[in-house]
Design a protein that fits this description.
6-stranded antiparallel β-sheet; 8-stranded mixed β-sheet; Carbamate kinase; 409 residues; 33% helix; alpha/beta; homodimer
Amino acid sequence: MPLLVMKFGGTSVADIARIRNAAAKVKREVEAGYDVIVIVSAMAGRTNELVAWVNETSPLYDAREYDAVVSSGENVTAGLMALTLQEMDVPARSWQGWQVPLVTTAAHGAARIERIERAAIDAKFAEGMRVAVVAGFQGISPEGRITTLGRGGSDTTAVAFAAAFEAERCDIYTDVDGVYTTDPRLCDRARKLSRIGFEEMLELASLGAKVLQTRSVELAMRYNVRLQVRSSFSDEPGTLVCGEEEVMESRVVSGVAYSRDEAEVTLTSVADRPGIAAAIFGPLAEAGVNVDMIVQNISDAGHTDMTFSCPVDQVKRAEAAMLAARERGEVGFEALVADTNVAKISVVGIGMRSHAGVAARMFRALSGEGINIKVITTSEIKISVLIDRKYMELAVQALHDAFGLENAA
Amino acid sequence: MPLLVMKFGGTSVADIARIRNAAAKVKREVEAGYDVIVIVSAMAGRTNELVAWVNETSPLYDAREYDAVVSSGENVTAGLMALTLQEMDVPARSWQGWQVPLVTTAAHGAARIERIERAAIDAKFAEGMRVAVVAGFQGISPEGRITTLGRGGSDTTAVAFAAAFEAERCDIYTDVDGVYTTDPRLCDRARKLSRIGFEEMLELASLGAKVLQTRSVELAMRYNVRLQVRSSFSDEPGTLVCGEEEVMESRVVSGVAYSRDEAEVTLTSVADRPGIAAAIFGPLAEAGVNVDMIVQNISDAGHTDMTFSCPVDQVKRAEAAMLAARERGEVGFEALVADTNVAKISVVGIGMRSHAGVAARMFRALSGEGINIKVITTSEIKISVLIDRKYMELAVQALHDAFGLENAA
């Protein structure tokens, strides 16, 4: 029988009425002839409550116990979903991560999936069970202890099951109805995309379009799992995230993303020598600073300016790391200048690979609005710029118009 | 190292502050040189919330899924208790039922413990762990699914661990500070007992003194586990439930118990023939009626009256079962008469075995207060009577005085 994976997030299973609504969607797929693996999150708010309790016990908690506590939320939803499906005459049962088993590394709190053993679930499908409900976000370590995959790990669980069971599709039901050309709150001309490529989705996800966890998209791309983002609260089709070859239209640009809370940090008069970049960015990485864009000016008389961007709330940490590195004599610079009022705007599209002139069009659109570009970086399918935060909304709208995204589909 | 089992009920772990209070008691025993196995219930109110959700999904739910959902409450407490102990520098870790494993029958919702495998916990004690925190009330079936032992099953879990690990004692921490000669709310002369025998405790428990689950006392008696009931909210010693030989004082009577909501049901003019008792009590048992006392009058011209007691809220069910049995011709009787305004009073004491005259003293005390006795039953260590409910409180006080229990200890 063909098989589907359906994943429901916390707001989609927040109470019994919503679990029933989700179960009705599952039943429809069963009636259409699919065996279904349902992955569930904890009921909305539950995980936060459990995490708060753990934090109350100890500021430096044992991650193994954290996992044992926090994973319980998904177990509750899995049982309730199985019961609800049974009540609708759909043969179903629940599985906890250790029962499958879904084996992970022992990196508690942020474990990686090693393998999913199919035998137990396959046997039940063979006996006539139509739906396996699996608690998301959790697994079992080689030592037999419960692990969790990190926040948002249920998306990753869903994709991993879709890969292991060769599912026809992996539907991620959530509280938005798909992936948009940009944030509809910032631009009322934003349009829902019917399809988007994995790489585009990855760029959008990492740029703050928080529809899917980045890890789950990476996994889907690696195993070529067709992923659909759709709403739990409507019957409209959502957005299919899939291989490039399935994205019919040759759109040049698929979306405009933004990231609000960026900071631009410049080290002035850095003594330019081989290995200087490592000397700067090594200590920053060790200090947990997520450096994003990096620009190095042309050297002038053996000195250069080095500029990078990072989240606003990491500037202090970056500064401390740099001052300490200078103290140790590992790096020489004159001053550290931080501008915490910048935002990042990106245009993303696989069509850029074959279309020249995207950057020029982007820069023209921004200059047409009088917006100054502070930093630029590019990848094969993305161009990002750092601008003053006050122009962020204007820039998103101008770029959305410049690339004709109001006509996207 | 000597080993203790300590069990904390729902009110004793209702929030993080109370979990800390309980953990401090555990730490004290560790510092006194004990290895400790802690059994925890779900935080107060949690299990009821989970049960309510299950009931909301389906009136006729799958008990296997019920168990998967409801067991999650204890898992949360186990992890939080382990974290709290670690924060107090006590080496601890949590175990869920399946991790131990504690293997049960597959009777979901009311499973019986088959065995506890010591190896994993013993190995950790050998490595220096001082406290194993185990989620109460749950186990794993031979099929690998989560089971629960029925409400109150955490007491039973505690006793089973004390037996398996040959614990020096099993301390049950609860919201009362011990076993009393009678209910202090009914008689201000009630005294806390320092020791009580297993069989007395069993009779008291089954008579409504709800300090310990009956099953846990039975198990303790079978494996001779010394059981102490004590308060989570004080440091006073509680009541030790132990073998008869350890109860020093040769008390004749240890306590006066009562059961408020009893009903007396009489079938009049029953055709007296061999097998008639089975013909009556078989259908009652099938209908789920908990028949307690039974009295059969002397036969008169081939007919007799049959009287039994049962909880008030089961009278309707008893009546339906009896009328249906008469309909099917299995039993003949003239009328079913129910008195729903009766209560049961019992005196319990292992000293009765060797002391005659307890019954006479009891009946004299009751008649001295003008209380009429409707039904009498006796066992080796207990005499119970059914009386009008309005005399219940008076009867408890009169009997408490008659047996000098204000001087018990």
